[in-house]
C-alpha cells in the first residue's frame, strides 16, 4: 500500500485511513455528512494522489490520444480540459479520464487510481514508435480545492489570475511558492473548484499554504466518503460501479462525450452500431419512494419482471433522501417511471428522476 | 473503552439491558465505530415479535449495511424514533440515547447465553 506525501497530515487531522486504489487515504476525518455539506456550502481540500497522470510528448501526441478516446481532442483549444471515456474495440469502457491539452505535441491524461496499471498497459500497447509516453502517477500529488469558496482559497496562494480560467480550463504558474504547477478549474463535486498537480516533494508545502485560508473560511479536509456522495448527487459516473468494460458510453448517458464524426478511434465501429441499434438499457437516476437504501447490485423489477440493476446508491446528504443510479431497460428510463428495488429481500418502490439530483451546484 | 456492567452483549455486537417489563436493545460502541457514521436505520414496528438470533433491524452507514440481531426474544414495545430521524445519535451515544428497540421479553433465561462486559471485552481483544 502506497502512502501519499500528505499521509502524516491526514493522521494529524484525524483522518480514518483505508486502502483505496492501492493507496492509504482518509475515508473521512470527522463525518461524511459534515464534510459533504462543507463542500456544498464552503470549501474542502482533498488528497487525490491515487489518480494517475500519463504524459504524451512529441510529434503525434494529439493524434495518438485522439485515437484512444471517444471525445475530440482535435477540437479542443490549448489550455482546455475535457472529460472522456476511453473504449475497447467492442465499445466497453477501459476507463474515464480527463485530457489536458497543452499543445499538439504535449498532452496529459488523468486516469482513475484503480485503473492506472491497466490503463498504462493499454496506452503503451497502442503507442506509436517514437512517441514519448511517461507515467508520472507515482511522482505526482493531486490536491483538489472544491466548493463555492474554492477560488478565494486558491487566490491566497498564487498570483496566477484565476478569473480568466474558465470551467475545464487550466494554467501553469507559481502556487505556494512552487514554480510551474498545473492548476485547472475542474472537479468531481458539482461545485466550483480547482485541482493542483504537484511533484511529491512540494505536496506538504502546497497543502500547508492552502490550509489557513481554508480554515478561516470554515472549510475542512474531505475524505473519500464525501467524495463519493458529492459525485453521486451530480450523476458523475464512478468507474467500477456505474461504468466498466461491460458498459458502453451511450447506455451510460455519456453520448455527449462520443464524437463519432471525428477521425477513427478505438471502439468507433462498435459505438456506431450501438447507436444505430439504440441502447437496450440506460443508466438512470432514481429516488427511493419507500424506506431503505438501494445498494450496488440490487435488482430492479417492474411487474415482477427483472428490468435492471443498481450500480450506486446512498443516502444523499444534501437532499436527505436515498438516491441511486441503475441500468434499467430503456422502456423504463423516462423520468416519473416507477419500479421496485430488491433491498435485502424486500421490494421497495423507486422512481426515475432527471439528473442531476443536486441542482444548486456552483460549478461554472 | 470500558463496557458497562449493567447489560449483556452478543457476539454480533448488540447489547441488552434486561428488565422483565421492558428490555432495551442497542448496538455496541465497537459496532458503531466499525460501521462509521450511520445514515439510515430500519427497525421493527411496535407490536412485532423479534426472535433471539434473528435479524430485527438494519443499521446503515454511507458505505455498508449491517443486520441488527436480536439478543433475546419478545414483543416490540417502543423504537427509538429520535435515532431513526437522526441515525448519527447512535454513533454519538451507542450505549445510551442511541438505543434502538425496547421489548417485553418472554424468555428471560436467554440472558444466560449472552456475554457479560468482561467476556465481551475479551471477545473484542481477539478481533
TrEMBL record, chain A:
Assigned keywords, A-Z: Aminotransferase, Transferase
Entry's Gene Ontology molecular function annotations: aminomethyltransferase activity; transaminase activity
A single GO BP: glycine decarboxylation via glycine cleavage system
Occurrences of domain Aminomethyltransferase C-terminal (ranges): 281-359
EC nos: 2.1.2.10
Stated role: The glycine cleavage system catalyzes the degradation of glycine.
Protein name from the UniProt record: Aminomethyltransferase
Organism of derivation: Candidatus Coatesbacteria bacterium RBG_13_66_14
UniProtKB/TrEMBL annotation, chain B:
SUPFAM superfamilies in the cross-refs: Single hybrid motif
Cofactor: (R)-lipoate
Modified-residue entries (N6-lipoyllysine), positions: 63
Keyword Cell membrane: no
Keywords: Lipoyl
All copies of domain Lipoyl-binding, residue ranges: 22-104
GO biological process: glycine decarboxylation via glycine cleavage system; protein lipoylation
Cofactor binding summary note: Binds 1 lipoyl cofactor covalently.
Pfam families in the record: GCV_H (PF01597)
InterPro entries per UniProt: 2-oxoA_DH_lipoyl-BS, Biotin_lipoyl, GCV_H, GCV_H/Fam206, GCV_H_sub, Single_hybrid_motif
Known function: The glycine cleavage system catalyzes the degradation of glycine. The H protein shuttles the methylamine group of glycine from the P protein to the T protein.
Family: Belongs to the GcvH family.
Protein name listed in UniProt: Glycine cleavage system H protein
Organism: Candidatus Coatesbacteria bacterium RBG_13_66_14
Amino acid at each position: 500500500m502506497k502512502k501519499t506525501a500528505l499521509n502524516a497530515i491526514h493522521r494529524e487531522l484525524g483522518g480514518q485511513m483505508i486502502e483505496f486504489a492501492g493507496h492509504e487515504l482518509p475515508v473521512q476525518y470527522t463525518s461524511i455528512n459534515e464534510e459533504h455539506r462543507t463542500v456544498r456550502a464552503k470549501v474542502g481540500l482533498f488528497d487525490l494522489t491515487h489518480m494517475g497522470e500519463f504524459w504524451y510528448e512529441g510529434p503525434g501526441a494529439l493524434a495518438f490520444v485522439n485515437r484512444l478516446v471517444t471525445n475530440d481532442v482535435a477540437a479542443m483549444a490549448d489550455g482546455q480540459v475535457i472529460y472522456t471515456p476511453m473504449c475497447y474495440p467492442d465499445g466497453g469502457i477501459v476507463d474515464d479520464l480527463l485530457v489536458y491539452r497543452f499543445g499538439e505535441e504535449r498532452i496529459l491524461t488523468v486516469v482513475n487510481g484503480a485503473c492506472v496499471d491497466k490503463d498504462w498497459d493499454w496506452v503503451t500497447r497502442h503507442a506509436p514508435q517514437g512517441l514519448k509516453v511517461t507515467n508520472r502517477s507515482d511522482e505526482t500529488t493531486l490536491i483538489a480545492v472544491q466548493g463555492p469558496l474554492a477560488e478565494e482559497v486558491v487566490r491566497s496562494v498564487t498570483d496566477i489570475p484565476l478569473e480568466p480560467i474558465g470551467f475545464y480550463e487550466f494554467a501553469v504558474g507559481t502556487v505556494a511558492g512552487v514554480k510551474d504547477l498545473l492548476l485547472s478549474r475542474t472537479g468531481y463535486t458539482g461545485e466550483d473548484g480547482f485541482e493542483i498537480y504537484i511533484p511529491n516533494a512540494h505536496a506538504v508545502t502546497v497543502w500547508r499554504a492552502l490550509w489557513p485560508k481554508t480554515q478561516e473560511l470554515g472549510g475542512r479536509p474531505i475524505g473519500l466518503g464525501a467524495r463519493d456522495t458529492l459525485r453521486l448527487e451530480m450523476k458523475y459516473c464512478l468507474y467500477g460501479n456505474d461504468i466498466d468494460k461491460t458498459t458502453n458510453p451511450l447506455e451510460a448517458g455519456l453520448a455527449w462525450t462520443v464524437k463519432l464524426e471525428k477521425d477513427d478511434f478505438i471502439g468507433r465501429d462498435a459505438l456506431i452500431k450501438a447507436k444505430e441499434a439504440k441502447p437496450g438499457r440506460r443508466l438512470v437516476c432514481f429516488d427511493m419512494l419507500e424506506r431503505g437504501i438501494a445498494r450496488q447490485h440490487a435488482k430492479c423489477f417492474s411487474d415482477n419482471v427483472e428490468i435492471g440493476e443498481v450500480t450506486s446508491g446512498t443516502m444523499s446528504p444534501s437532499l436527505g433522501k436515498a438516491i441511486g443510479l441503475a441500468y434499467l431497460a430503456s422502456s423504463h428510463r423516462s423520468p416519473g417511471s416507477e419500479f421496485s428495488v430488491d433491498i435485502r429481500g424486500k421490494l421497495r418502490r423507486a422512481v426515475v428522476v432527471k439528473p442531476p439530483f443536486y441542482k444548486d451546484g456552483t460549478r461554472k | 473503552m470500558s463496557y458497562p456492567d449493567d447489560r449483556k452483549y452478543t457476539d454480533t455486537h448488540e447489547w441488552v439491558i434486561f428488565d422483565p417489563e421492558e428490555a432495551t436493545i442497542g448496538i455496541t460502541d465497537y459496532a458503531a465505530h466499525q460501521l462509521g457514521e450511520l445514515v439510515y436505520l430500519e427497525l421493527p414496528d411496535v407490536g412485532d415479535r423479534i426472535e433471539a438470533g434473528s435479524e430485527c433491524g438494519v443499521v446503515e452507514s454511507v458505505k455498508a449495511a449491517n443486520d441488527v440481531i436480536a439478543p433475546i426474544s419478545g414483543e416490540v414495545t417502543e423504537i427509538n424514533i429520535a435515532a431513526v430521524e437522526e441515525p448519527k445519535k447512535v454513533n454519538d451515544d451507542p450505549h445510551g440515547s442511541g438505543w434502538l428497540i425496547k421489548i417485553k421479553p418472554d424468555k428471560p433465561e436467554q440472558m444466560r447465553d449472552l456475554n457479560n462486559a468482561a467476556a465481551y471485552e475479551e471477545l473484542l481483544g481477539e478481533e
